[in-house]
Amino acid sequence: xxxxxxxxxxxxxxxxxxxxxxxxxxxxxxxxxxxxxxxxxxxxxxxxxxxxxxxxxxxxxxxxxxxxxxxxxxxxxxxxxxxxxxxxxxxxxxxxxxxxxxxxxxxxxxxxxxxxxxxxxxxxxxxxxxxxxxxxxxxxxxxxxxxxxxxxxxxxxxxxxxxxxxxxxxxxxxxxxxxxxxxxxxxxxxxxxxxxxxxxxxxxxxxxxxxxxxxxxxxxxxxxxxxxxxxxxxxxxxxxxxxxxxxxxxxxxxxxxxxxxxxxxxxxxxxxxxxxxxxxxxxxxxxxxxxxxxxxxxxxxxxxxxxxxxxxxxxxxxxxxxxxxxxxxxxxxxxxxxxxxxxxxxxxxxxxxxxxxxxxxxxxxxxxxxxxxxxxxxxxxxxxxxxxxxxxxxxxxxxxxxxxxxxxxxxxxxxxxxxxxxxxxxxxxxxxxxxxxxxxxxxxxxxxxxxxxxxxxxxxxxxxxxxxxxxxxxxxxxxxxxxxxxxxxxxxxxxxxxxxxxxxxxxxxxxxxxxxxxxxxxxxxxxxxxxxxxxxxxxxxxxxxxxxxxxxxxxxxxxxxxxxxxxxxxxxxxxxxxxxxxxxxxxxxxxxxxxxxxxxxxxxxxxxxxxxxxxxxxxxxxxxxxxxxxxxxxxxxxxxxxxxxxxxxxxxxxxxxxxxxxxxxxxxxxxxxxxxxxxxxxxxxxxxxxxxxxxx
Length: 696
Description:
The protein starts with a helix and ends in a 17-residue tail after the last helix. The protein has 24 helices and 23 strands. Helix 7 (209-218) packs across helix 17. A hairpin with a 7-residue loop joins strand 10 and strand 11 (506-511). Helix content is 45%, strand content 18%.
């Protein structure tokens, strides 16, 4: 695990490579597979070195630079900004050091009519930031997402007047964007335009949050994006048509078998469709499997489905060793592995019942992954997929692709086909929406690693032979996902979680299943309620009892307005509600919380428990003795105002340096640890997740 926590060096890469080669030379045949694993580790470490070298130096945070480069994504156009990925080619002005960031995620506010297009080269003057993000338990890890997508910096267009479009070259992304524009022209302001664009060219910006919720709850989100199912469908249809045409021409038949020609044609069609999809992870996996199968058939070599899946996984990891950081890797390969386990070595059965069985097994088999990545169990998935899979495969994907192929030749026909696909999608989404509203999904707290491991063992029992002893244990083992995390938010240990929210102070206190929030943090799009409090409450299965606002002033109450709408049933106290707050107290398990009036209408919170007393204040006060939680640096510069913890020994730990800070009551004193220390990895800002002195 230390290799994942600290930036790898040359010695670690060389050592892993040398060990792998040595093992491959001395190990007997059949025992050389560990060498392949070690080589994979060495390749992953080398990739990490390369990615970290192409990240903006944190010391250059906030610097300005004028760069020439190319747009390497389809821009997302919103009402107030345009967002795209920019690959710098050379520095015109600035103080950046080589190597330049490989990719920069750019926001252009007020781009106007001169919107940037995919594949275009531009001269842009940017204000750059090193990859950074909030680090909270159960919160979205933005820095991990940036690392996974190979983005070495973020920024925004600083001087729009100096932006200049340069000579560019054609790219597949430009074709994808053009097809999406034509679809928008033909379908107008249709509610399902984003779904049609997503199935055709993987442009998903138009899919609404409500539509994603419906697809997520019903377990059908994989169908409304270009997935392995669609790649296989395209390969099969193209191969079948090519095989039929090949058989009609005798000279071609004499040159080679029609089945080989059809297979190769299907592989080419699959590659073209994957290119239209932007080579996303599911399409990579499916395309590699198709190419492996086509190559084995062309070379007359037998190849098992499991071998094909293994080769596909190895190829994806060779291209992107850090693909497992995303849910798509596990969901994509996991679903295919479950299907293979359910069908390989069994007699072929036709009809709706075998299809329902496979969908049920896939739904059950993916429960551990969906609980870990999404926090809910889509129990409707087998039934919803029984309807949605054939519907999308037969009534949606073919007309979408046929419209793309025919539009350059007969535009009217292409538009009619897209309209037919849109109408079919509308009917399907209506049914799925009804199912989601009527039944919904089971929300589950974040499961512990042990619960996930036991649930995976339960899945293996479900997929095992009928004669396998102990299959009845599968149900109880899977039910562990519903029982909540082993590391619960409260449980037998009282906790105070000081969140990393960028500025201000937001702290949560809990013991058992109830919680109280003190503070309010920043507001805006990334408010403290959405980035920290809500994910933690949902992941730990906690109920918010009260929210105490320490000061009626930014950055202590920025998230309060939004939070009051989300938790209207909670008790709202503090600044602005002096009458209700005076004398207020509450008991959470072993903790007793009391509101304390301060100067200038501010409120503090004093905590008594089995351990030492703890004080929460709007700002850290040097006169306060014992353990203190508050905001630091607010008096000097609001831009450096960060939540912090001051233990008894006089040190101070800030959330902008260590991520969220968690205090646990062990009965004698408060044990302090940071989220960077607990879950920090090589891609987190600050390098290694080294513990601070004295932290346990």
